[in-house]
Model the fold of this input.
Amino acid sequence: MLAHDVFYRKLGSKNTAYFLGILFCIVLVGANIVASQSFNTHMYGYMDGKDEDQLVYLKHIWGTSLYNQEIDALKKENKSTILGQWENVQQQNNKRISMMELTARSHPYSPELYYNLFLLYSENGNSPKAHEYLQKAKQIDPSI
Done:
């Protein structure tokens, strides 16, 4: 075997590895571009001042430190319609909680009820109470 044959074989295997490396990088960059384009569409509505999108945003930040700042900002901007709608959402959530708690008293061995109470209290920003109901649900059904 001649020296140039050995050289070209080594060069061919290096080119294949190099090509696969470049292809892998292109796939990763493409996946990154696709993933970066999936943006929450509610954010555009929130920036445009749409009421329903602002309610969705408040629901997502409920129970966080940012929530009080956003409520104060809405009060300063005199957005009484959004604040009124938000109070209605909170009242409906409190009604759901009271109905679920009443149902849980009459059906104390239903892990689904306790899990739903966990979700409602989590959404309400009451983490200790939510954790309590999650533990009750897990006592009845450990697979939760």
